[in-house]
Design goal:
The protein folds into three domains: 27-151, Cupredoxins -  blue copper proteins (Immunoglobulin-like), CATH 2.60.40.420; 153-340, Cupredoxins -  blue copper proteins (Immunoglobulin-like), CATH 2.60.40.420; 364-515, Cupredoxins -  blue copper proteins (Immunoglobulin-like, Sandwich). 6% of the residues lie in helices and 37% in strands. It contains four helices and 29 strands. It has a six-stranded mixed sheet with strand order 22-21-1-27-24-25. A six-stranded mixed sheet has the order 11-10-13-18-15-16, with no helix packed on it. Its EC number is 1.10.3.2.
């Protein structure tokens, strides 16, 4: 079991939006997302996957800070779907946030839904993805948020920039994998490959000709917008012979720091600068799984892309390979994550809550439930489950946002414990199995502290960083450890918090926050055409 302490200030801040209470009343940019089955060939075989507009990964959205856009989503696939705009705070507009049965019922095959995406303070890289079952394995894409028009990056302008999306691939249908896992109660089959921009790379069968290549000019500096869309794994990432400089995470700028590798959780984004300053040649870009717990079955393969210099030169027969940390190197993982700091300059100030009005202590755990005649695929015939404070989330019959907004009784409870109901050694060696990358919808939060072992309420707060903590929307709670975050609950609505390892979310490691209306800050009314339940 992992200890996670969340400190929340419930002060509500007034927000002003154009066209209050009316959707689609301005000539905002409009995009069309058609969710449809498309055949794709990977690892020597072809299968149909769900895509947006036939693309895998899906289309990249380009916006400026503070923009609003409209996305018309048409479901021409064979199962229910929703689309989530990961890390977009959507001020007062939870209706377009996207998690199924939380803020909307899913878009059924043949149906459609028009979503209004309201950007506010985000600047950098985010992404969008399906938020129903495990379809985000193939239904996802990047969101690039440029500074306000006329403003510049807080670092020298790069020569060029590239989204780099890390992912996973299963030979079997992802919908079938989800159904099998839910039915048998065990761990899902591990993936057959990791991906870089949709391609497995040279080390997998039938993959070398399509390996993603990043072409660069000697002496130029480039910006990589790194996204981990993997369904089940935290990943290490590195470029052979090239250091990267971290300049942002989760659409917030960071103090620059140099590193030989990156640790990136599912759902997280990292912005990286690198300079093509090595001998012109070709070099491997690589990513592989980080697994914090012992005895866990995982995909131990490595995905690659190629960094290739332009020009005339004699290249080596085999590209140089980067030195990635070992799969169980927790020290390397937490060292990278612990190095993140907010930029905290005059143009990008921090606003860390100091006066805390509500303190929450949450424990995250993997559990087991009994099965009739020990017939499930979990340990000793049990069914695997996951929980927060020993409570597993169960999807309601209608979405929680509509139930809250229209005062529908009997859909959700409001007695979730703010503190674990039973105290014991939360980080005993026989309990934790994984890091848990936790993602909060509707907000970004300051990661003010983390550590290994049990949280000490007397000593650990003395180590909090209240000066320049990183501002994120996804953070990995380390195996055998704890993380403390702070944020202001200034965005009224129903918002989801969950583990971004999809098997854990499906097992119940989820919760919802209901932020009530305050003076000058009220939930916008629902848009027309909400999908039916």
């Amino acid at each position: 079991m992992l200890a996670m302490k969340i400190l929340i200030s419930l002060q509500l801040l007034g927000l002003t939006l154009l066209c209050v209470g009316i959707f689609h009343c301005q000539a905002w940019p409009r995009y069309t997302f058609v969710v449809e089955e498309t055949p794709y060939r990977r690892l020597c075989s072809t299968k149909n996957i769900l895509t947006v507009n036939g693309q895998f990964p899906g289309p990249t959205l380009y916006v400026h800070k503070g923009d609003t856009i409209i996305v018309d989503v048409y479901n021409k696939g064979n199962r229910n779907i929703t689309i989530h705009w990961h890390g977009v705070k959507q001020p007062r507009n939870p209706w377009s946030d996207g998690p199924d049965y939380i803020t909307q019922c899913p878009i059924q095959p043949g149906g459609s839904f028009t979503q209004t995406i309201i950007f506010s303070s985000e600047e950098g890289t985010l992404w969008w993805h399906a938020h129903s079952e495990w379809d985000r394995a193939t239904v996802h894409g990047a969101i690039v948020i440029y500074p306000n028009k006329g403003a510049t990056y807080p670092f020298p302008k790069p020569h060029a920039e590239f989204p780099i999306i890390l992912g996973e691939w299963w030979k079997e249908d992802i919908g079938q994998l989800y159904n099998e896992t839910i039915q048998n109660g065990g761990d899902p089959n591990i993936s057959n490959a990791f991906l870089i921009n949709g391609q497995p790379g040279d080390l997998y069968p039938c993959s070398k000709p399509d390996t993603f290549k990043l072409m660069v000019d000697y002496g130029k500096t480039y910006l990589l917008r790194l996204i981990n869309s993997a369904v089940q794994e935290i990943l290490f990432f590195s470029i052979a012979n090239h250091k990267v400089t971290v300049v942002g995470s989760d659409a917030s700028y960071t103090k620059p720091f140099s590193s030989d590798y990156v640790t990136i959780s599912p759902g997280q984004t990292i912005d990286l600068l690198f300079t093509a300053d090595q001998t012109p040649n070709h070099y491997y870009i690589a990513a592989k799984a980080y697994v914090g717990g012992a005895g866990i079955v995982y995909d131990n393969t490595t995905t690659t892309a190629i960094l290739q210099y332009n020009g005339n030169y004699t290249s080596t027969s085999t590209p140089s390979f980067p030195k990635l940390p070992s799969h169980n190197d927790t020290k390397a993982s937490v060292h990278f994550t612990g190095s993140l700091r907010s930029l905290a300059d005059k143009n990008h100030p921090v606003d860390v809550p100091r006066k805390i009005t509500t303190s929450l202590f949450y424990t995250l755990s993997i559990n087991t439930l009994p099965c009739l005649k020990h017939s499930c695929a979990g340990p000793n015939g049990t069914r695997l489950a996951a929980s927060v404070n020993n409570i597993s989330f169960v999807d309601p019959s209608i979405d929680i946002l509509q139930a809250y907004y229209y005062h529908v009784n009997g859909v959700f409870g409001t007695r979730f414990p703010n503190f674990p109901p039973l105290l014991f050694n939360f980080t005993a060696q026989d309990l934790p199995l994984d890091d848990h990358p936790m993602h909060l919808h509707g907000f970004s939060f300051y990661v003010v502290g983390w550590g290994l072992g049990n949280f000490d309420e007397d000593k650990d707060p003395l180590t909090y960083n209240l000066v320049d903590p990183p501002l994120q929307n996804t953070i990995a709670v380390p195996v055998n450890g704890w993380t403390t975050i702070r944020f202001k609950a200034d965005n009224p609505g129903v918002w989801f918090m969950h583990c971004h390892l999809d098997r854990h979310m499906s097992w119940g490691m989820d919760m919802t926050f209901i932020v009530k209306n305050g003076k000058g800050a009220k939930i916008l009314p629902p848009p027309p055409g909400m999908p039916p339940c």
